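Dear Dr. H.,

I hope your travels went smoothly. While you were away I took the liberty of generating a structure for the chain from your last submission, since the lab meeting agenda had it listed for discussion. I wanted you to have the full record in hand beforehand rather than looking at slides cold. The sequence, exactly as received, is reproduced here:
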Amino acid sequence: MIENKIIDGKTVAAAIEARIKIQAEELLGNRGITPGLAVVLVGTDPASATYVRSKGKACARLGFYSATHTLPEETTEGELLALIAELNSDPRVHGILVQSPMPKHINPDTVVLAIDPRKDVDGFHPANVGRLVIGLPSPEPCTPSGVIAMLKHYGIQTRGKRAVVVGRSMLVGKPLANLLLRKGEGGDAIVTVAHSAAGDLGSITRQADILVAAIGRPGYITANMVKPGAVVIDVGINRVDDPTTEKGYRIVGDVDFDAVAPVASAITPVPGGVGLMTIAMLMNNTLRSAQGAFD
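The corresponding predicted structure, in token form, is as follows:
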């Protein structure tokens, strides 16, 4: 049962981490394997640095091996690829993540292709994208799989439901649509992918039993775009100016939360919703890699 209509990312992430910790301990006890995550940060972007520290803390909580490689902004693409090659061959490392954004002189597609698909815990490698589409085991992109985990945790039925995903990025929209289409729990939905090119987006979103906003525009989804009783999942993380706050800004989602919450049967807040799931699912992918699920 969902209290006060809120789908709480903190609660779901904590439950997932508790399961991961138990399985990691079993993996160490039965096979002598400690899951390992290597994170590479090129440059000094403050938000990226904060995110990388969060991943290190998660590894510590779960008993994972953690390696953080902080490289200067002027690191060449060749130097970065050489490090990735080392990590690909390092038996202690089961997951490799190169933090985005990267400096402009480095091609992110080249970097993704260099990562061993079995260690691609972001789920970005074309081989893993293809495996996801055809239903083979693969590391699943963390934010989309986090959305599915939230729906499952709260017992929200997807089978036969109309799901509308607003946004078509490779980070969220497209992989989430594929996850919702899969057979089994958390899937079997009737999926529509919509985006800003739609002439009348509201006519599409009002059909949704499950509406996912991942368009990157603050407050874009308004109450008149939501079918009464729909489940609303807000993936957006947007910084908007707010001189009344200490930092001078606040974080909001793609959904006008105050207006939409009374219409929805359940809704994720921002912050406190989907964003908290990303690291939990990253740890889950690392665990599964260590277990050999992607070999």
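Two observations you may find useful: The longest strand covers residues 36-42. The mean pLDDT is 95.

With kind regards,
E. W.
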